[in-house]
User: Fold these one by one.
Assistant:
Number 1:
Amino acid sequence: MDGLNVSDVNLQVQLHPSRSNNVRNAVLRELSSLLLRFNEKFQGVVLAYEFKIDKVPDILPSMHPYLYVRLKAKLLLFSPKPDMLLEGKVVKVKQESIHVIILGFSSAIITDKDIREEFQYKTKHGKDLFVSRSHKRHVIKAGTMIRLLVKSMDEETLCISASLLPAHTGSILWLDKHVENVSLTDGSNKRGEETRKNQLCQSLVEPVPKHILWLTITSRSQRNTENLLHKSLVGAKHILPE
Amino acid sequence: MGVVLRDDEAAFRKMGDHDLIDSYLVYRARDTLCSVSWGNTEDYRQLLSAMNPEELGANEVAMLVTNLKALAGAVACIDNVLHDELLSAISNMSLWNYKPDVMDALLEFIESLATSSGKYVDYCLKMLTCQFFPPLSLPLPKILARKDGVLSRVHSSLKYIADLVPLSPARLVPIVLNGKPQYCFNTISTLSLVIYVENMFKLESGVLGEVVRIPMFAGVVDLLLELDVNIGWEDIENETSERIFEMELEDGDESRDDDSELPRKLSQKILGGNSFAEKLDSLMVLTFEHLESCQVADRLIKIFDTLLELFKKTILTAYKPKFAQFVIFYACSLDPKNCGVTFALMLEHTFFFSTDDPVLRMKAVAYLASYLSRAKFLSVFVIAGTLERLVDWCVKYVKMQDNVINPKAHRLFYSGCEAIIYVLCFRMRSMMDDPQLKTWLFHLPLESILNNKLSPLKVCLPSIVLEFLRQAKAARLFMTSEKFIFDDYLESELSREFGGTERLDMFFPFDPCLLEKSDSYIRPNFIFWSMVQPTYDDEDSSDEDVGEAFASDDDGGMDYGIMQSLEEQHFDFAEVGSALNKMSITPKDSLHSRFGGAINQPMRMPSRIRPSTSPESL
């Protein structure tokens, strides 16, 4: 599946002095507030993170003596872009649309005009499904894992508008058996990257209520982060200059 | 708009076995919506007029249902700019005004729209949460008749949307909380407010609960607190000050004949004139019932953790709330062994180890003292354990100090001492009755914390000190009790000084609840002063009666009726027993000076109508 990146970033977090007795917890809270939200700086949704504090926190010389914490963080980002192939589970099939959930949190909708004509809507035993006219076993119904093409994403609600027009989209089970000649992924270095993603997914931290703390990234870092992450270089290490 | 309609053949291509007529209607709806972008608005105007019929006859209803169902299949063609009039018309529709067939069609449209695109999620959630408030124009019987039908459908739709858009519950939270009628408490009816909170609880206990539980509870607690602060001390005093003696006379004359009528009448005088109190009372009862349902569903402990966090964040930090704190008191009463003990430990921990503001720590120990004294459901051994730790803390404090009496500098110590003696005023007799606890009590180093250079007995609230010393003397708790000159403790400027501007020296948050309906829930688990047996034998015959009557209560044999009748007797005794009057910790002068000189009469008020800064007259 496309759209997942692991990126190494340098972050600078400013913590309220009242949090100085447990800096790690305060940083965790701050990073947790990034989870499951689209972040423009990272051009994606932070799904998981791990970090280590780079240096002993400094106290900012200002009226408000905030602690200045530098982090080296590893972020698992979900950054769907148009024409990427994503995978998700069908939760609802209607005559006008197919509803899919990707990675358990992002909803995707495929309207009937984005379903290729090969698929025909039917109801069988009271269940709604789309069946391929040419391959009767190629069926899409609630519970089917499908591969879909991204058209757009609403960054606010993380809802994806998707399409089943290309031939290499549809039920993953059927496609993997019958469309072996379609190259869906960049095979190089794939296995290693999957392992890293899985490790980060396992360490996904539950979101906690946002605390009144600041997270800042220096302007140079922002630019670099955007530039580097925009390239969607899966697995490449992006060490950002401060 | 970017939507290109398929030709007729394509539109019907995927029809399968579906009803041809329904599919045709969907096709027509799509055509109508798309034609707006081409400049052809004739059909669209007709559609709009059908959505807002002037009269709702059978034909209009049928047309409305048909249009809504057709639009539900054509949501992909809706554009929030081109079709804003349509969206606006639909958002103005209230489910409460329609029969079930229209409701179902409207909700089908809302569900389809919400799941069709991310940009309509918030719009649809807002529309659904608007249904939490019935229209003002709808008469009460219709509201009650339609309530279940409307709300069950709304919650079912919210679940449907959450199933297809997993992040929608997170977006729902701020929408529900922002719908809180915080700026129109005066205008909104109690029923509307109750229905709103009922829905918050329904969300909390429903399938979306995992996401919305904490914010929904936080919203309810905030609402209770907002209503609480809207009932000022002055409000209560203004209403009651003029009739204090009249009511007390009434109390004395009539209550003996009728146990139930007088309290209700008294409460009506407060509640009737202050709708905030009525609203708060209703919401408190709703909250109590929800907590009960949580206990039945075996998830009270889970809820209690949330409640405890909210208590620490909001109620504990609030300026002397009067009623909202009874929510956690009631939760504790439902599960004394877990919740009841956890609450006491939390307060204790806040007092001992908190690095927060000392005022917060003083509040925590005030809550602790009041809770340990009033909670009928708490084991006396739990109370003894807490007291021992409080005494230990005070002993260590005394050892570290070499100063003389200083109310401001040692306010934490004085608040700890006041808590100890206050709890002992209520619990000393029951501890003396248990041989094990009696020995423990005699070995408690009370004298070392009460009789030292810091002189806490000179600083703590005199009425409590006096009652404590009286009981301690009778119980022979101190070997050197003759050192204390009791008459010196009737008045003290020092207590005012250590209590600070918030007068935390006289803050006893779990004094009797003044809200009538809420009180009926709290009362069975509550210790009124009239139920307490002091260690001394009062010379007053009436007090002896009280003592005798409540002797059975220690065994847990007192039923609610007896308690109520004794509570009524208590009012009488409060008037005639000078010893009990002295125990009233609402100092006449201090309250008088605080609330202005307009109140020239003595400040003692009957317990049922007095603000709960102090225990009811002892």
Note: The helical segments of chain A are 23-32, 172-178, 190-202, 219-230.
Number 2:
Amino acid sequence: MKRFLSLLLACVMVFAVALTMASCEKEEESGKPYGFEETKELAAQGAVNEVAPAVTGDVSKLKVGVILIGNDQEGYTKAHIDGITQAAEALGMDVSTQVMWKYSIPEDESVTSNGEQLIAAGCNVIVSNSYGHQSYMQEMAAAHPEVQFIAMTGDTAASSGLTNLSNAFTKVYESRYVAGVVAGMKLKELIDAGKLTDANYNGENVKIGYVGAFNFAEVMSGYTAFYLGVKSIVENVEMDVHFTDSWYDFDKEKAAAAALVESGCVIISQHADSAGAPTAVEEAWNNGKVAYCVGYNVSMLDAAPNAALTSATNVWSVYYQYAFATAINGGDIASNWSAGYKEGAVKITDLGPNCAEGTQAKVDEVVGKLQAGTLNVFDTSKFTVEGKAITWAYATDSDGDFAYDKNNVVADGYFHESFVQSAPAFNLRIDGINWLNK
Amino acid sequence: MSNTSVAAKKPPLFHIVGRGRGQLPFYQAWGIRLGAFALALILNAVFVYLVVGVDPITFYQTMLKGAFGKGFLWPTIKTSAKLLCIAVALAPAFKMRFWNIGAEGQVLVGGIAAAVVMFYFSDLPAVVILLLMMIVSLVAGALWGVIPAFFKAKMNVNETLFTLMMNYIAMNLVNFFYDLWKGPKTALGKINQSTHAGWLSSLWEKRDANGYLIRGEESLFTNSDFWFVVIICVVAVLMYFYLKYTKQGYEIAVVGESSNTARYAGISVKKVILRTMILSGAICGLCGFLVVSAQSNTVSVSMAGGYGFTAIIVAWLSKFNTFTMAGVSVLIVALEQGAAQMANEYNFMGFSVAAADVMIGIMLLFIVGSEFFIHYKVMFRKSSKEVAAV
């Protein structure tokens, strides 16, 4: 009995220590990672935007293993599956024997066990498509220097010092901006036709809404780009963001979108992977509400044939073709890769039937400017933080405390997104965007 | 007399008779086992042929390659070792007829305890931190095992439900720390990835001035998986001797056969229950420690991978003989790995992970089912002529 009690006591103490330490917050460092007056030198560019080189090696030697967070029923993973398939076919690979798929792999040690199976099966390039796969990919990369590892959307390839680990992300913020322009055109049409009511306004501003997964850079960069796209057409606009804390949750996304529409938001966009939001908006549209939606990854016209305007999407095949061709040629796949409209790595899906007149022409114009480099999405003269235009902003977290502390990326009048690293870095909370539940 | 009463007197088509103790000779028992195994192999081959059209020879070649081929062997060995470790932990409890369904949770708390040390005491020297991790894991696992045992011993609370429920507490404890540590990211990932503090490999790793790892010659002794397997094998051997040749092991057997006999013989049943569950839980905790320090380097609810439950089958099938357990563990894991390789190679023909699960299910059903026919005899109804003759 005594022994039992002492055991119990020992364990209680261990957990008590853990809990106390957990509750001790790290002390906040003073100073913000951005400013409004001084300027700083632009950091060195880390992310490259190369396209596929001509194939000089033996295509049949390449075997690709793919670790996927979801399956083909889910937009984000489907886009990767399509991208890999198209890239492999374009390079003349036999997809059925030269690509091995691992579906629905959670972000835990199953990445390692599945990765080891793929390596044993002869794969010499391993791709994972979720951020949380990355740390397992990194350890495998260290243990298997002969195999190339690609952790999509990741951010540690450069700092790990491993040459066989790569990260990549598209400049999807460009297509989100263009999707915002499409939404802005619709909004303008509705305003001009007098279709909006007082409920759609907060003071002077028209309300739009956004269903976001998590409140960190990848999502913040995306919704800010979308918002700025809308704002480039309709100046007096503000946006409510509802976070769901999940990449894929049909019911939560649907409920969030329904609540946003109910509160008067005219256009709902999303950075979450289900068709929940478009489904809710289509229902509202059918009930006579003035509500439209802009999706992500895949066209939402199936879920919302009337309400869907377009979706911002990635053309992953551009990257995969570059990576596979480079691997076939025996070259080094870049640590960080990021490309946008110029390289054809992002686009918006077909416009829905209810888009405003002249939308396509406007889209072509904006895309042309993005390709030419005359338009920058995060133009510092187009948005403010705390009421002021920023003059510098850091984009790298070097000590793992989730706050940026080095590498300024504001120069030449705009925030250079996906510049130091391929993963999105823009996490400024700009004026005109409200968080509903954080 | 009506017809119905005649029908009622008719004996059933077959009935089942226990064979009693030790009636079946050794070769017959193994004949039944091998027969069942062969039947399962044939049925699986038919199933795979019907589902994906892969011929049996290719099918079993792929299965063998996936389980024991080059590059596949180590994953099979180390995964088997994990399963073996939990089965070894369960053996004394089940031998005592204490239904410990809580191995999954005991492994999880062992893992989380190790991770707590790893996360908050990462500055300690490598040997110290690993020792500390091991100790808290053993204690946490033992605690998770002894709580239900305490209530069983003192108040005769049903241990099956109690240990099962403890699993869910452990899972949520893992979820709690997981969410706490991941911060605003979507996933926790490996803990201390930049320093490898608390990783078994930190014992022999060397770093250059920039903090990058220096990759030396790979050898068996600088391989975490190797030590993972070695430690578990040692524990398995010790458990064999503990159960077979020690007084405590004998007491466990007596309590398992009949607690009244044990009491009559002067064995304190309560003490044996508590002691055995501390041991059982502690070994589960050790498994958690080994997984966290040598394999995953992080925590997640899939840390034990459901092996806390699979190990129950392993322990029973092996009749608590730890050497047999090693064989059964390898067999089950080889099936899983082989089936996974089938899913790898024939996915495009429609062989999915779900089909692999069906295959493993068929195998296990036959293997477990064969034990039934070893212990029981099926007596068919004698034909009507024979009945008439009687």
Note: Chain A touches chain B through 48 residues (CB under 8 Å).
Number 3:
Amino acid sequence: MLKIRNLISGYDKIKVLKNISMHVDPGEIVTIIGANGAGKTTLLSTIAGLVRTESGETLFKDTNVVKVKASDIPGLGCVMVPEGRQVFATMSVEENLLLGGHVVQKQGKQLLLELLEHQYELFPILRDRKKQLAGTLSGGEQQMLAMGRALMAKPSLLMMDEPSTGLAPLIVKEIFQIIVRLRDEGNTVLLVEQNAKAALGIADRGYVLETGKIIVQGPAGDLLANQDVQRAYLGRDRAE
Amino acid sequence: MTTELFIQYLMAGITYGSIYAIVAIGFNIIYNTTGIINFAQGEFVMFGGMIAISLLQYMPLPLAIALSVAITMLIGALIEICFIRWLKAPSVLRMIIITIGISIISREVAVHIWGESIRSLPYFIGNEISSIPVLGARISPQVLWVIAVSALMVVCLGIFFKTTSVGREMRACASNRKAATLCGINTQNMVTLSFVLSAGIGALAGCVMSPITYSQYDMGTGLAIKGFTVAILGGLGSSGGAVAAGLLLGIIEAFSVSVVPLAFQDAISIAILLIILFVRPQGLFGSKEAAGLSEF
């Protein structure tokens, strides 16, 4: 699905990602964990085309997408749910969702309506709030809206950046259950999280990112048991 | 004040008010997709009128107006492509200064092409002295043209932004550009489109108002100030607010003539602008909620 080789990228002179190689297979949840400033968001932004790639390649379904414009990436089936939701605050919930369906619009109104209905089933709260301005929703509702909007594009790869930020634990649990459900329905998810425990809890595989490099990788269960990972990201000391 | 005089002032107010409203809506369209105020908006109105006047020598009036609107739209697109598009992550202030520069350049170009003479399109129906009786007062038919065309533009734009997917995408760019990109919307094209659209409606306004207000190379500055006042008064980005505020300002100006000398007319709109900016920056009709949710 997604294969990244020797990726280097960053902002102007500052290189944030130093030689990243990773891959995501169809139907799995892959998580990238790491501390603040490790480069997690930059990695997703680079894949999404928002940050320019310096060198290396990003193969999405066997096409190199490093030179593709950010606005053309969703059309290929790679859609990102950005950090901090980034909903269209001044527009209604339904309009937000319809905008998410921009890339499938040409395939007809029928499909758009079916997708809309599907999102309302997945997130019933959005149906109740469909006429409300998105900016007036609670944090959890906005996160659901951002996910629903991304899913409207019928993505083959859903990239999520820090969905748990600023949400109550109960809401985080709900969001993560939905991510699992999405995977069970055959979706592929690349999940970036600071909340390592929750992320590894649902993921199939994981990568640990530290100052722009991948330092550990493996099945999520192994990472949960890994002592270095435990000490650095799960808040448990070696002595325990 | 007699009823006839009252109606006369009122109609004059509504006429100028609709022109201000259209200029303000031009501001709003670009503001709504880019978050900037395009201070060259008045120049679009000037170009619309001037080009139509020049074309009139070669073709009938409706065709001259249509072609003039099309040419002005092209100018709008060129301005965006040459001056705005290539800016990477421009700040709001930088873009505003660029549009002021564009407005000065446009005026210079206009004075070189058309000179300083005052011109005008002929009346669409009848001539300077033909009039229609309205409640005892006598109204020029061109006044009705201005009001009708303005109303039609407002309704069409409203439908465009609310119900069409392109209109929705333009609003999305205004609301959150990054998110719009992540939805697969080409935001640069939307910005170009917003310049084309606002150039088009500005030019059309420039044509219908030309017989009454006349056209001159520097008419844009005054209009831009009035239009900006109206846009702020009505709440930036709100078309309905722009119409209400435009009519309000037009009517206040018209009636002010009966109280203070004509020369104070412009001072009144500037005074209103200042008062609004101090007291109610979100505008008379702008909602505080929406203002809090927008970025600029």
Note: Residues 82-154 of chain A form one domain.
